[in-house]
Amino acid sequence: MSKRKKTLSVLLTAGLGLSLFSSLPVQASNGAAGTKQNLPVQAPNVLAKQPIYLDKSYSFQERAADLVSRMTLEEKASQMNSSSAPAIPRLGVKAYGWWNEALHGVARTQYNPTGNATLLNNTTSYPIDLSLGSTWDPQLMYKEAGMISDEAREVAPENTQDLDYWSPTINLARDPRWGRNDESYGEDPFLTTQIASQFVNGMEGKDMDGKLLPESDGYLKTVTTIKHYVANNSEVNRLNGSSNVDERSLREYFSAPFKGVVQKANVSSVMTSYNSINGVPGSANVHTMDTLLRQTFGFSGYETSDCDAVYEVSNPGGHNWTPPGWTRPVNQIERTAFSIGAGEDLNCNAGYSDGYSFGNTVPAAISQKIVTPTGTFSENDVDTALIRLFTARMQLGEFDNPNSVPWVKEARKNVPEGAWTNSNDNNAITQTKERLDMARKVAANSLVLLKNSETTQKDGSKGKLLPLKVPASGSFKVAVVGYFANPDNMYLGGYSSNQGSAGVAKFVNAYNGIKNAVTAVNPNAEVTYYKGFTDKGNTAKDLNTVDPAAVEAAKNADVVIVYAGTDNTTADEAGDRHDLNLPGAQASLIDQVAKANPNTIAVMETIGQVEVNSFDQDVSAMIWSSYNGERKGEGLADVLLGNHNPSGHLPFTWYQSSSQLPAITDYTLRPTGDNPGRTYMYFNGPISYPFGHGLSYSTFKYSNLDISKKNLQANDTFDVSVDVTNTGKTKGDEVVQLYVNTPDAAPELQRPNKRLEGFQKVSLNPGETKTVTMTVKVPDLAFFDEAQNKYVVDQGRYGIQIGTSSSDADIQQQGFIKVHGDLKPELSVVTVKPVQEGDKEADVPSRVMYDKGKVVIPQVTVSMNDDSLYGYIYKNNSKSLPEGLNIKYSSNRPDVVSVDDGVIRTIKGGAATITATASYHGVKKSTQFVVYVKQGELDGINVDGKPLAGFSGNQYNYSVQVADGTNTVPQISATSHNPDVKVKVTQATSISGTATIVTQEGDYSHTYKIGFGRAPVSADFKSGTLGDQWSILNEAKNNYSLTTDGLQITTQPGNIADGSIKNMFLQQAAGDWQYETKINLSAKPTGTQEVGLGVYDDQNNYIKVTYGTSYSGQQSLNLIRSIDGGEMLFKTQNLSATNLYLRIVKAGSQYTAYYSTDGSTFRLLNTAPISMANPKIGIIATNGTANAAVPINAVFSYLKNY
């Protein structure tokens, strides 16, 4: 049933969308982009009879606010679930899937609204993030990300839907055992910021400075999400552990890349993490989510939880969190309030937890008026979150004519709409030559040459083994040894797409890449593959017995390449490594082969660093990368044969052994006791290779270090330049690395050994010299002082080091600067939490929707360059603005919201944007916020002169129970304080009828429905008679009967959604109640058959709890709700039975379903909120679509109040 309904919703939406788009005005291109991004001082009024949310003269934020203002509370809540945001056909809102993945190529799309995102077939798979980190090449990352986003648009539904990608992962690789180490860009925050920012820019359609490209016409190409915020590096306890870190480490290290990407790329979304930070869950943490991320760093996009992370807040096996001052853990309703109140806008709820989500807990949380650290939870919090979500969708062009969105036009030019399907039948058409060439190029650039020693080769010549010297003719034997060189299935790393035969045909593994390259030089060469193990398994953990025949064969080769690797059996999401050993006997294989043939190259493609002590002295050369994409073989061959001079550098410290590391759950960075510290910044033990290490086939000389200014104040900036000369015979790329240390710092301050503060990749021909210049801001050298709660700059000497790695032995040039004076605070970020007069007393923390005639109070916060905060932070936590700081306000629509002598006041219905500009010591920073003045809402409804219980201005359906024996139809009246609202009342004419109230203010209209009905009546169907309370929708007399066992219905084709369902027995169901039925089936349902209970207003508005099948085809119970034709699945529970009992409990607008197979033990299914004017409880037995399986008989014994 749910499959068919979803399709219907899309069709309805598409039809509505065409009619809406056809009314859009033709708009000149000149200035169009500016109106989207930079609001004019005086904006035009909305065009007549066109809602603001479809009017392109308004900003995306204003349009989003208008759209949200038209939603009911249930509709709002439904849009806050990532996996199942349903359509709202009456508003032209399509069903949307937020959970999509593009970590190293577009890989998953949220097709299925019941769980995980669906794997995509045959899309391009590039090297994994850790490989990109080893390129040290932001520009290359930018180019690759641009290609990923091109492909994302091409495969996205309609080229406009599901374009939010929960990538990249920017957690720092502080511990190489982390199960998701390959998803990281490395251990350093500066390097990660530079690389990750260009992933964001390339994906979102921006230039490398973070500004939208001119050809974007103001639209985002995709939305990216940096994750997992914050301090999330251990899978073993990720669902229930706490990352306990001091504030200095949190600021300087763990949150630093998030701050960097926010400020460098203006990223659109952030995903919070499962773990707690210092005892507070990451998805309910005001300090990290709001105080730091938004107010201090300046993030303005939406925040999403990790999947079911909000569930873990209250899960007894998870955090089971008790907030400060509480005496018990929060429950499922309270966790919603705490999460949204802290800043969580979207609930990634995949349906594999307890079934509670934002979608079915938000209304209850609002009604309970839960007090959180930021204020009393209310619909204002929901509005704020939803506007962020719909702003993102607006920015992608979803609500505009597709022909006006450049990214859509480009995608359809490359791949005609409908030409791509998610199956092998797509023939991998999006894996274009350009993209495959990029995968090859990135693979080559990511390879790190760890070692390249002198050796005596088979022909007697001496020299470095690499690059390989393949003769043009004659005998030349290459042995390629190791399972991963020619695997049964190429492992591409986490979050990779699925590859059918069409995609696999484009793969080039290591063996094929080497063979093709060698034989292209010498057709007579022999390139032979040996698995190297006698084991039959095909995973890393199965490679346990070295094949002596392979070792023997390697003796006679001119060169041997031993290829070792890891895969998802070594570590992955939810599973860390226990040690740093190469899995199985791979290290032994390398050692045995190298001892048999000194001309051995060890190639390692792994999740991270591995122990090499057992073989590194025996091999002549070593190369490392992480999982290196589908063209890894070509990239490797390019390096081995010298067609590409290796330029990769390690993005991490290569520890000798895991015994050097503390427990992975220990998040301490600086040395303490037996803990030697982590990363190159603090670790002081012996290592295999330093951070930044990477060899080349060229040699480079550094000279002429110049520091533009050596005596500086704390707010100064200086340049560091150095000449780099290629002294080799081969063109090569050198990564010039700039480190800064504090040699005179007091030991008790525990300053880092050094910090990376700049790098630049420079390409040089043999003999060529280039001057490389890098700029350093002294404030970037500050350290966080916990006592002062801000960054401070140390006085005295700083060492400026130019090196080829972080090792002191690799320093090529160095000098010193001296810094004097304290860091003077300068404006960095301005944010607001605006409210209206009276909100403080009501404990409202912020709002977007305002009443007419109210003063708006901005509640400004400013963050300085030292991360100090001033102004309103959150409830009972404010700090006076600095003396001399001035703030001015302006409105782009003063007829809607005026600004007079600094006082902001709402004037009339509509949307306006207020710009708040702060000035302090000559520096100006500004922020904008939308003030939406509500239109057309009522203040109240009376029934027979008494206030209607539960009234809310944006709830439009109400059910009123009329007592038995009362035949007088109640009369309604409406109240509104707004003289501009016109009200038309139409009274009901019968007890089962509906009264309507239509309000009109300008072009804004609402229709309120108040239905009058009776309470339901119990029925014993085994009695042989039906009470007169029953009506039958689409009666088919030949297909139902009353038997001694009960009411028997034979299923027939038909659906509730299109009104074609047959023999749906209905009776009025006003008021609160709890009803149960017993069902006996002649067979288990198949296909689209479903049997159960429902509560029905009309074919567009209902809930149903039915036994049928799930998306996966298994028999299951499904709780589904439809509001105005937009279906939402709240819960699927696998079940195999022919006898079952179902219960529905109605409490206001909340409907809770239970089930049992024995009639005594009932289990909760889920709760669905829906407001209906005339609810009727109903019995459902239908075949669904016409081509369903053979009809079955369903016997209902009773429907009774229990």
TrEMBL record:
<dbReference type="Pfam" id="PF01915">
    <property type="entry name" value="Glyco_hydro_3_C"/>
</dbReference>
<dbReference type="InterPro" id="IPR026891">
    <property type="entry name" value="Fn3-like"/>
</dbReference>
<dbReference type="InterPro" id="IPR013320">
    <property type="entry name" value="ConA-like_dom_sf"/>
</dbReference>
<dbReference type="InterPro" id="IPR041542">
    <property type="entry name" value="GH43_C2"/>
</dbReference>
<protein>
    <submittedName>
        <fullName>Family 3 glycosyl hydrolase</fullName>
    </submittedName>
</protein>
<dbReference type="Pfam" id="PF17851">
    <property type="entry name" value="GH43_C2"/>
</dbReference>
<dbReference type="InterPro" id="IPR044993">
    <property type="entry name" value="BXL"/>
</dbReference>
<dbReference type="Pfam" id="PF14310">
    <property type="entry name" value="Fn3-like"/>
</dbReference>
<dbReference type="GO" id="GO:0046556">
    <property type="term" value="F:alpha-L-arabinofuranosidase activity"/>
</dbReference>
<dbReference type="Pfam" id="PF00933">
    <property type="entry name" value="Glyco_hydro_3"/>
</dbReference>
<dbReference type="InterPro" id="IPR002772">
    <property type="entry name" value="Glyco_hydro_3_C"/>
</dbReference>
<dbReference type="GO" id="GO:0045493">
    <property type="term" value="P:xylan catabolic process"/>
</dbReference>
<comment type="similarity">
    <text>Belongs to the glycosyl hydrolase 3 family.</text>
</comment>
<dbReference type="GO" id="GO:0009044">
    <property type="term" value="F:xylan 1,4-beta-xylosidase activity"/>
</dbReference>
<dbReference type="InterPro" id="IPR036962">
    <property type="entry name" value="Glyco_hydro_3_N_sf"/>
</dbReference>
<keyword id="KW-0378">Hydrolase</keyword>
<feature type="signal peptide">
    <location>
        <begin position="1"/>
        <end position="28"/>
    </location>
</feature>
<feature type="domain" description="Fibronectin type III-like">
    <location>
        <begin position="734"/>
        <end position="806"/>
    </location>
</feature>
<dbReference type="InterPro" id="IPR013783">
    <property type="entry name" value="Ig-like_fold"/>
</dbReference>
<dbReference type="InterPro" id="IPR017853">
    <property type="entry name" value="GH"/>
</dbReference>
<dbReference type="InterPro" id="IPR001764">
    <property type="entry name" value="Glyco_hydro_3_N"/>
</dbReference>
<dbReference type="InterPro" id="IPR036881">
    <property type="entry name" value="Glyco_hydro_3_C_sf"/>
</dbReference>
<dbReference type="InterPro" id="IPR008964">
    <property type="entry name" value="Invasin/intimin_cell_adhesion"/>
</dbReference>
<dbReference type="GO" id="GO:0008422">
    <property type="term" value="F:beta-glucosidase activity"/>
</dbReference>
<dbReference type="GO" id="GO:0031222">
    <property type="term" value="P:arabinan catabolic process"/>
</dbReference>
<keyword id="KW-0732">Signal</keyword>
